[in-house]
TrEMBL record:
Protein name: Response regulator
Pfam families (alphabetical): GGDEF, Response_reg
CDD domains in the record: REC
Modified residues (4-aspartylphosphate): 53
Single Gene Ontology BP annotation: phosphorelay signal transduction system
Entries under NCBIfam families matching the protein: GGDEF
Keyword Phosphoprotein belongs to the record: yes
Taxonomic lineage from the root: Bacteria, Pseudomonadati, Myxococcota, Myxococcia, Myxococcales
InterPro entries recorded: Bact_response_regulator (IPR050595), CheY-like_superfamily (IPR011006), GAF-like_dom_sf (IPR029016), GGDEF_dom (IPR000160), Nucleotide_cyclase (IPR029787), Rev_trsase/Diguanyl_cyclase (IPR043128), Sig_transdc_resp-reg_receiver (IPR001789)
Phosphoprotein found in the keyword field: yes
Length: 616
């Protein structure tokens, strides 16, 4: 339906005459008396046609035509005037008027000029509509193609990168980040790009709490941070949260409603793609498992590790590689038969499978060697896992059955990217070196694994008449004998300085002695340390005058004569392993100290069991 026609003339008679003529032919007419009112009316209502007198006070017909066409270059205008020379004049042509009529205007001439003008306006509307529809069709076709790509690939790593790339493109965003739901129910940062600084992006977010309401709505929402507009886009499938995208730094300075609409369409397909990718990965894993143990084969593991290395390099992350070996498996096979050897391997894989996360991968490298990959795990976490893994294996019924006839020589080693290497071979090499160190360790040579804490302390300290400790060049040094009286205090002070220099280092420190006092060097040395040290520090002994310290945890052992007769420091961290145990006598201090990681770890584990201390 055609829009209204605006008639502009300071002559009331002509306004009324023109309105009557046009109304008889079915047109809607609005009339005003001057150019200023016409401009105000045109600002409120779009008119398909404006009929204006040329000579008017204030804004004349030529000026009005020019002003109207500044707003809309396609505005149809018919000029009317008492002057016969207006038609075809230079000013009329330059103003862009569609036609010029001389007063008095014949009804037939006016209706003919109006019909021509309205026909041209209708054709322009149709052309504009077709153009807009074509543009919209092309845009939706492009969006459809992007969506199809997101569900056509099963590679999760590729998909995560592509999701933020496509969302950025359809929303004209220069920056984007993507969090994907992990096996523990947390949204974990998986990809980011653009102007974002990773240190300001949360590594993990809970879908509960403040986000819960927004995610349940399953609709994108707008926000604003200190520097940019932000658009959050949830990825949902059948009401289940899969991920959350953050888009920021829009090119136009702000996001528009169509950005939110397109982002939601793309996010729906992206969520399906992520879910399908997970299912495909699960199917691939099923087809790449060893029949006997259900562990993955080495080919799949190395491919998975290469992707993890790429992610770690791209996003500055860390992961750990672990190797386990049953050193005496050939002996088990010879003495007890192939059935027991297979049972031992199955039991070890089953024990490890119970304690790993869904994102961790275990593979069978050979009959007696296994690899584990632990994403987002630092070296200290890997060391703690090795301890847990060995303990879990010893508790597995199949392993216990085999060990009732012949103990298994299980040894594990760990390495961490990029601390120990930046490619798979380097990491495996480092793991094997640490396995060799454990094989040569005093822990294995003295068969200390089965001893309680204080029995091991007595064995390691020995007496002046005890035989010398065995030495192996592959192992870290261990010594027993007389030690300086000041060593215990100096070592505490040095550890306190190290923890203050690097408060982010994860580790465990146990300081034990007859009394827990405020003047202990470790307590005094950590007074200036931040309260949120990553290392956990415990003081064991009889309580005297220690006030609460945010970095220290006292463990009061009243009346334990074994503690009162000894002093010890056990320190295990990402970069250090050290143990000092000493017994003060009348003439000198007798002690044992070592940097053998296996011995230090074993002492800490047994100390935790002896006094029911919480593991890290």
């Amino acid at each position: 339906m055609a829009g209204p026609i605006l008639v502009v003339d300071d002559d009331l008679f002509f306004r009324q005459l023109a309105s009557d003529m046009l109304s008889r032919h079915g047109h809607r007419v609005v009339s005003v008396e001057n150019g200023t009112l016409a401009l105000e009316e045109a600002a409120r209502t779009p008119f398909d046609l404006v009929i204006t007198d040329v000579v008017m006070p204030g804004v004349d017909g030529f000026a009005l035509t020019a002003r109207l066409r500044e707003r809309d270059p396609d505005q149809e205008v018919i000029l009317v005037s008492h002057r016969t020379d207006v038609k075809g004049s230079e000013m009329a042509l330059r103003s862009g008027a569609a036609d010029c009529l001389a007063k008095p205007v014949e009804e037939a001439d006016l209706v003919l000029a109006v019909d021509r003008a309205l026909e041209r306006a209708a054709l322009r509307r149709e052309r504009t509509q077709l153009r807009d529809e074509n543009i919209e069709f092309a845009r939706f076709h492009n969006l459809h193609q992007r969506c199809l790509e997101l569900i056509s690939q099963s590679d999760l790593e590729w998909l995560q990168e592509r999701i933020i790339s496509e969302l950025s493109a359809v929303c004209d965003a220069q920056s984007a980040a993507l969090w994907v739901l992990d096996d523990r129910g947390d949204l974990v940062l998986r990809a980011y790009r653009g102007l974002l600084d990773k240190q300001f992006l949360a590594e993990k977010m809970s879908p509960e709490g403040p986000l819960a309401g927004r995610l349940r709505d399953a609709q994108p929402w707008f926000a604003r941070d200190e520097r940019s507009a932000v658009l959050y886009v949830p990825l949902m499938v059948s009401g289940e949260i899969v991920g959350l995208a953050q888009l920021s730094d829009p090119l136009a300075g702000d996001f528009r409603a169509e950005h939110s609409r397109d982002a939601r369409v793309l996010a729906d397909f992206a969520a399906v793609g992520v879910k399908n990718g997970r299912r495909m990965m699960a199917l691939q894993r099923l087809g790449l498992r060893d029949r006997e143990t259900a562990a993955y084969n080495l080919s799949y593991f190395t491919d998975y590790a290469s992707k993890e290395i790429y992610k770690a390099r791209r996003y500055g992350r860390t992961f750990s590689l672990l190797t386990f070996s049953i050193d005496n498996l050939p002996l088990v096979r010879v003495r007890q038969g192939a059935a027991d050897a297979k049972k031992a391997v199955r039991g070890i894989i089953r024990a490890l499978s119970k304690i790993i996360r869904d994102s961790d991968v275990i593979a069978k490298a050979s009959d007696q060697e296994f690899y584990l990959l632990l994403p987002e795990t630092d070296f200290f976490g890997a060391m703690m896992f090795v301890r847990r893994a060995v303990a879990a294996v010893r508790e597995e019924p199949e392993v216990q059955d085999v060990e009732s006839r012949l103990p298994l020589a299980l040894v594990g080693g760990a390495s961490t990217f990029p601390k120990d290497g930046e490619d798979f071979d380097e990491l495996v090499h480092r793991c094997r070196r640490r396995m060799d160190e454990r094989r040569a360790s005093l822990q294995r040579r003295l068969m200390l694994d089965g001893l309680p804490f204080w029995d091991e302390v007595d064995l390691l300290l020995g007496t002046p008449n005890s035989p010398r400790l065995p030495v192996d060049e592959r192992a870290e040094p261990s010594r027993r004998g007389k030690v300086a009286d000041v060593l215990f205090d100096e070592l505490q002070a040095e550890i306190a300085r190290e923890l203050t220099r690097d408060p982010g280092t994860r580790g465990l420190l146990y300081v034990g002695g007859p009394e827990i006092r405020a003047d202990l060097p470790i307590a005094a040395g950590l007074e200036s340390a931040p309260p949120d040290l990553s290392s956990r520090i415990y003081l064991l002994g009889r309580r005297v005058d220690l006030e609460s310290h945010p970095a220290l945890t006292p463990v009061f052992l009243e009346g334990d004569e074994r503690v009162s007769r000894h002093e010890f420091i056990l320190w295990l961290s990402e970069s250090a392993a050290y143990a000092l145990i000493q017994r003060r006598g009348r003439g000198a201090t007798w002690g044992f100290h070592t940097s053998d990681t296996a011995v230090v770890d074993g002492l800490i584990s047994k100390l935790q069991a002896e006094y029911d201390l919480q593991p890290y």
